[in-house]
């Protein structure tokens, strides 16, 4: 039996585009998204821990250096700088590059500006900078310190995106830019947020870390106590929280505006805000405060105005001289951006380009390691330059010692360079230098200067070689460089003054809810057609009230603007109306259904002022009811809260307080009357207290509806109005009974509408 081997067919020829490989879609997407994420993290969003710059900022500074925009030089149009950046180094949109450049020049955005702008570069109000064709810029001394040593092989260079030129991968960074200016960025799956700090304090912490390699975070924070924002303000975070944030690399700092009280005549005063939190736009802040004033959310504040010129000056006028400034500012801190929280997230790229969250010591040590490496590279570069120069000077000295022979060789030999090398045992560099000498250099004085330079360079070479061989000397030199930065930009300089005050956490000020709304007496008017309005003060005479045609007074409630009003509808739901939300002014007010969502098919039964701790007696038209706590009637939404459940064909009918006189003294009996004109009086204790439901039967009815309920004190008797007179029945024994009885005919003179009327307990 033979076995036949089948040869698989050859693969199809590859197309002109290259090889085609089968791969899973999830794997392909994952690889490409990861590549995109890494590109975003490394090339756009996260700063380098060594120089604190993102690629766009690094390329901006390098392009300006190439254009020789030194601090002592002239300005150039920003459009020229942006053009060089996007053309040579950063192939992105010009607007993004210009915005990055503008931010480096804004003194309110950057603690130590790297660009000095000329023209409109925006302001703290949030206005944008002028177009790049109108503005000009040059580098600052801080930016120059960042790039010091670029020509001395201090850092690595790499090809630009098109390979035509080289650009630095990192700046030498003599200035601690990462902590001094901070950084913000959002990458794919990670972000960074580092606040600015004071350069002098950073240098103090760096010097301490040089002397104490394992210094605890607490020692470093003692020298670098917290952020120093360019807009000032007051840092009101506890020292423990600050240490914890720097220990983990993550945390938050609470920042408040700085304010003072200016005394005026007659006991008046005003509050002046002179510094606002970092990254807060002043115009939006003032608009927010003005909205609070207009909506009466800050009743202690009367007015706000902006008197800022070069400095911030926001004037807050209190409503009266009796206002406590601390309480007023506490309200504003809670409701506006006069207080903010700056989140700390020290997520940076380390020296190997790996993103990770560092603590304060790691960030400082990474900067020191970078400065140490820069020192070593610059020293070696200088040694190479000295060695080359000494080699050239050695050739010059040979030429001076054998000047006549050198001249003869140059004049007579066909190949003078080779002849010089053979005759005097010179190197190629020395022979080339001799051939390039000028005749004026052959004077005797020049020989003396060469010997002097040779001696000086030899001495410098020995010192540099000693430096390279001794780590202690190298770290001492790094410390000297940091002291130089501290002297140039630390305390005692224009930029070095600490702007953000370090304060203790403020004591908790209890601001009652009533203080958030202006407290003043009002009379709330509800009409039978459901229109509501508020009159200023407690109005006694309501005879002059005007209503729409066909409308009339339903309820008048005397309250305060800080009170809450309970509105009961015939569907058994309570709706909560804030006293300060009731429309005021002339006119008929507005429909209450614009304030709360009362259905159109529901009638308005009662409007009462909410009394904390109070109780109400609720009853439906079918004669059922119960007692409920007023707190259980408060609704949290405009849709209200279902409290009284009404049966089919019945509606909520009555809402009465348990204190008939409105003085907090509860009644002891309940009087019930229905459309069948039967009156029943029974003890209040027979009515249960419930949170919601149908309740119990208050009066037995047949083919009748409950019309009114009243809580009374039996010793005071039963009162009702008859025309302009108020009548009282003191002997209620004929009508006394128990709950759910039918009752008897009411006393002579009882109203024909079978209602007790207003008892004055509203």
Automatic annotation (TrEMBL):
Gene Ontology BP terms: chromosome segregation; DNA topological change
Pfam families: DNA_topoisoIV
PROSITE patterns per the UniProt record, alphabetical: TOPO_IIA
Keyword Isomerase: yes
Site (Transition state stabilizer): residue numbering on this chain: 133
Catalytic activity as recorded in UniProt: ATP-dependent breakage, passage and rejoining of double-stranded DNA
Keyword terms of this UniProt record: Cell membrane, DNA-binding, Isomerase, Membrane, Topoisomerase
Active site: 134 (o-(5'-phospho-dna)-tyrosine intermediate)
GO molecular function, one term: DNA topoisomerase type II (double strand cut, ATP-hydrolyzing) activity
Annotated stretches, region: Disordered: 739-762
InterPro entries named among the record's database cross-references: Gyrase/topoIV_suA_C (IPR035516), Topo_IIA-like_dom_sf (IPR013760), Topo_IIA_A/C_ab (IPR013758), Topo_IIA_A_a_sf (IPR013757), Topo_IIA_dom_A (IPR002205), TopoIV_A_Gneg (IPR005742), Type_II_DNA_Topoisomerases (IPR050220)
Gene3D superfamilies for the chain: 3.30.1360.40, DNA gyrase/topoisomerase IV, subunit A, C-terminal, Topoisomerase II, domain 5, Topoisomerase, domain 3
GO CC field: chromosome; cytoplasm; DNA topoisomerase type II (double strand cut, ATP-hydrolyzing) complex; extrinsic component of plasma membrane
Site residues by UniProt (Interaction with DNA): 54, 90, 92
UniProt membrane topology term: Peripheral membrane protein
Main function: Topoisomerase IV is essential for chromosome segregation. It relaxes supercoiled DNA. Performs the decatenation events required during the replication of a circular DNA molecule.
PANTHER family, A to Z: DNA GYRASE/TOPOISOMERASE SUBUNIT A (PTHR43493), DNA TOPOISOMERASE 4 SUBUNIT A (PTHR43493:SF1)
Family listed: Belongs to the type II topoisomerase GyrA/ParC subunit family. ParC type 1 subfamily.
Subunit structure and binding partners: Heterotetramer composed of ParC and ParE.
Protein name: DNA topoisomerase 4 subunit A
Organism: Roseospira visakhapatnamensis
């Amino acid at each position: 039996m033979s076995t036949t081997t089948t040869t698989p067919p050859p693969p199809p020829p590859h197309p002109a585009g290259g090889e085609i490989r089968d791969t899973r879609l999830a794997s392909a997407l994952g690889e490409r998204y990861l590549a995109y994420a890494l590109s975003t993290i490394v090339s756009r969003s996260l700063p380098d821990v060594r120089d604190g710059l993102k690629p766009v900022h690094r390329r901006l500074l390098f392009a300006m250096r190439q254009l020789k925009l030194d601090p002592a030089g002239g300005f150039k149009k920003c459009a020229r700088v942006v053009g060089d950046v996007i053309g040579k180094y950063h192939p992105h949109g010009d607007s993004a590059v210009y915005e990055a450049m503008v931010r480096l020049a804004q003194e309110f955005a950057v603690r130590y500006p790297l660009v000095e702008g000329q023209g409109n570069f925006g302001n703290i109000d949030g206005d944008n900078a002028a177009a790049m064709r109108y503005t000009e810029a040059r580098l600052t001394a801080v930016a120059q310190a960042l790039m010091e040593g670029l020509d001395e092989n201090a850092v690595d260079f790499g090809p630009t995106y098109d390979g035509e030129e080289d650009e630095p991968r990192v700046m030498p960074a003599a200035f601690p830019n990462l902590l001094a200016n901070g950084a913000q960025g959002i990458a794919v799956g990670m972000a960074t947020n580092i606040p600015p700090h004071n350069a002098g304090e950073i240098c103090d912490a760096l010097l301490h870390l040089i002397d104490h390699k394992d210094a605890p975070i607490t020692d470093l924070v003692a020298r670098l106590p917290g952020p120093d924002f360019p807009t000032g303000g007051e840092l009101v975070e506890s020292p423990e929280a600050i240490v914890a944030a720097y220990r983990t690399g993550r945390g938050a700092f609470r920042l408040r505006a700085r304010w003072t009280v200016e005394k005026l005549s007659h006991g008046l005063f005003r509050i002046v805000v002179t510094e606002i939190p970092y990254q807060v736009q002043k115009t939006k802040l003032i608009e927010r405060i003005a909205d609070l004033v207009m909506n009466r959310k800050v009743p202690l504040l009367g007015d706000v105005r902006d008197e800022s010129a070069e400095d911030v000056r926001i004037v807050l006028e209190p409503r009266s001289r009796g206002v406590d400034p601390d309480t007023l500012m506490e309200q504003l801190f809670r409701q506006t951006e006069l207080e903010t929280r700056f989140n700390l997230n020290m997520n940076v790229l380390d020296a190997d380009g790996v993103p990770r969250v560092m603590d304060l010591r790691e960030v400082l040590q990474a900067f020191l390691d970078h400065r140490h490496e820069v020192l070593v590279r610059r020293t070696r570069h200088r040694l190479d330059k000295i060695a080359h120069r000494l080699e050239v000077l050695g050739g010059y000295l040979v030429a001076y010692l054998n000047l006549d022979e050198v001249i003869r060789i140059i004049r007579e030999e066909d190949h003078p360079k080779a002849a010089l090398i053979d005759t005097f045992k010179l190197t190629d560099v020395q022979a080339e230098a001799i051939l390039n000498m000028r005749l004026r250099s052959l004077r005797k004085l020049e020989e003396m200067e060469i010997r002097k330079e040779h001696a000086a360079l030899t001495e410098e070479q020995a010192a540099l070689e000693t430096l390279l061989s001794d780590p202690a000397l190298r770290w001492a030199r790094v410390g000297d460089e940091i002291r130089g930065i501290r002297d140039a930009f630390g305390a005692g300089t224009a930029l070095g003054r600490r702007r953000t005050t370090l304060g203790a956490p403020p004591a908790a000020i209890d601001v009652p809810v009533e203080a958030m709304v202006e407290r003043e007496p009002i009379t709330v008017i509800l009409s039978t057609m459901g229109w509501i309005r508020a009159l200023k003060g407690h109005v006694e005479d309501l005879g002059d009230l005007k209503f729409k045609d066909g409308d009339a007074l339903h309820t008048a409630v005397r309250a305060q603007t800080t009170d809450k009003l309970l509105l009961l509808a015939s569907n058994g739901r309570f709706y909560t109306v804030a006293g300060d939300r009731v429309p005021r002014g002339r006119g008929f007010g507005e429909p209450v259904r614009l304030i709360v969502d009362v259905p159109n098919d529901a009638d308005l039964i009662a409007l009462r002022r909410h009394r904390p701790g109070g109780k109400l007696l609720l009853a439906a038209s079918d004669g059922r009811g119960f007692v409920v706590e007023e707190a259980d009637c408060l609704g949290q939404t405009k849709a209200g809260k279902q409290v009284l459940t009404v049966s089919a064909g019945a509606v909520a009918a009555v809402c009465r307080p348990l204190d008939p006189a409105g003085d907090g003294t509860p009644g002891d009996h309940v009087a019930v009357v229905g459309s069948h004109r039967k009156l029943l009086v029974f003890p209040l204790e027979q009515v249960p207290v419930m949170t919601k439901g149908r309740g119990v039967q208050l009066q037995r009815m047949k083919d009748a509806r409950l019309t009114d309920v009243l809580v009374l004190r039996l010793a005071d008797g039963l009162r009702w109005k008859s025309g302009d007179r108020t009548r009282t029945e003191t002997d209620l024994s004929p009508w006394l009974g128990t709950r759910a009885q039918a009752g008897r005919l009411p006393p002579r003179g009882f109203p024909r509408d079978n209602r007790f009327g207003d008892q004055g307990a509203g």
